[in-house]
Amino acid sequence: MSDFKNFSRMFRLDGKVALVTGSSRGLGLHAATAFLLAGAKTVIISARKAEGEQGINQAVDRLNKLPGITGKAIGIAANVADTEDIERLVKEIQKHEEKLDILVANAGATWGGPFDPTPDWSSKKVLDLNVRGVFNLARLFAPMLEKAGTRTDPSRIIIVSSTAGVTVPHVGDHGTIMYSVSKAAAHHLTRQLAIELGPRNITSNTVGPGFFPSKLANGLIEILGGEQELKDANPRKRLGEPEDIAGVMVFLCSPAGNYINGEDIHVDGGMRFAAGRQTKL
Ligand SMILES: NC(=O)c1ccc[n+]([C@@H]2O[C@H](COP(=O)([O-])OP(=O)(O)OC[C@H]3O[C@@H](n4cnc5c(N)ncnc54)[C@H](OP(=O)(O)O)[C@@H]3O)[C@@H](O)[C@H]2O)c1
User: Fold this and answer.
1) 179 CA distance to ligand 1 centroid (A)?
2) Is the separation of the CB atoms in 180 and 169 below 8 Å?
3) Superfamily of domain 11-278 in the CATH hierarchy
4) Residues with CB under 6 A from ligand 1
5) How far apart are CA 208 and CA 248, in angstroms?
6) Whose CA is nearest to atom 27 of ligand 1?
7) Which atom of ligand 1 is nearest to the CA of 221?
8) How far from each other are the two terminal CA atoms of the chain, in whole angstroms?
9) Rounded Cα gap, residues 115 and 157, in angstroms
10) pLDDT above 90 covers what percent of the chain?
């Protein structure tokens, strides 16, 4: 028989403090929900907008009504493409918490259009948020993460990338070249952070989703022929669902993911290996 330490807590996050950027909706909200259900003490919901149907406040209200949770969600607005705003976010969080166990750099931007002309602002927008912003989040939150991590229970950085970071998914009229490039950079940033921050008891990994219906993805899903067509093309015959993000996030951030560092985990039903069928643009 093997002697496992605390197997019953293997997929739990009891007592943990997590920040999820871009968590007012979409994949970030799935991750935040899962963290609270897995026992997290505090989950910080962040995005640019506080008010309105898709703002932070409605997400925080709904999260705090989740049955059976012992922790709480709190909301702090910030633009994580802006370095000064990230510095402010660190200070705001320090008013509530001394340490941070989990940083999910999820907020991302995309732009699609023909190769020529590509407006320069679109590349800047995508790279500022998806690459420079993610690097600055890791850099500026590293001291708080280091305070939380130990050799036996490191703190965690999860960068939400995309299968677009390892494929060439869309060219032509609806090309997403710089998005794809930004996500490839995110994968390599993870590897760099894994080596840089591993000795400081912080692990870094990437989650690369395939298509999940969301505000960001829905336009492209329609351009590609709609949900049914993408489901039919996928080896698992479906698109991503909230539980798929919940599972991978809890796995990577719980004791089960303790020794995983510098990895990319794609959550796409295997679709990226059949990418040629998706390239109809
Ligand atoms: N959905 C998919 O199929 C899919 C596939 C592959 C990868 N991804 C990746 O998954 C991540 C989340 O995408 P999603 O589909 O969940 O998108 P979404 O539903 O559009 O949500 C994006 C979230 O990010 C926030 N946000 C946007 N820009 C921000 C900024 N500058 N600073 C702070 N927050 C910002 C948004 O709120 P505000 O607008 O209020 O700021 C919102 O909370 C992205 O990195 C995306 O590239 C998604």
Assistant:
1) 12
2) yes
3) NAD(P)-binding Rossmann-like Domain (3.40.50.720)
4) 21-28, 47-49, 79-81, 106-109, 129, 160, 162, 209, 211-212, 214-217
5) 10
6) 107
7) 3
8) 55
9) 33
10) 93
Structure tokens at 188: 């390599």
Task: Give pLDDT, residue 170.
Answer: 85
For residue 146, the SS3 value is: helix
> Where do runs of H (alpha helix) occur along the chain?
26-37, 56-63, 83-94, 120-127, 133-148, 177-197, 215-223, 227-233, 242-253
Residue labelled with tokens 């802006």? 82
Question: Which residues are catalytic, by number?
Answer: 179
Mean pLDDT of the region 67-85: 98
Residue 146 token pair:
């280091």
Residue 240 CA: nearest ligand 1 atom is: 3
Domain ranges of the chain: 11-278
Helix (H), strand (E), coil (C) string for 23-65 = CCCHHHHHHHHHHHHCCCCEEEEECCCCCCCCCHHHHHHHHCC
Percent of the residues in the chain that have a pLDDT greater than 70, as a whole number: 98
Strand order across the beta sheet in which 17-21 lies:
72-75, 42-46, 17-21, 102-105, 155-160, 202-209, 264-267
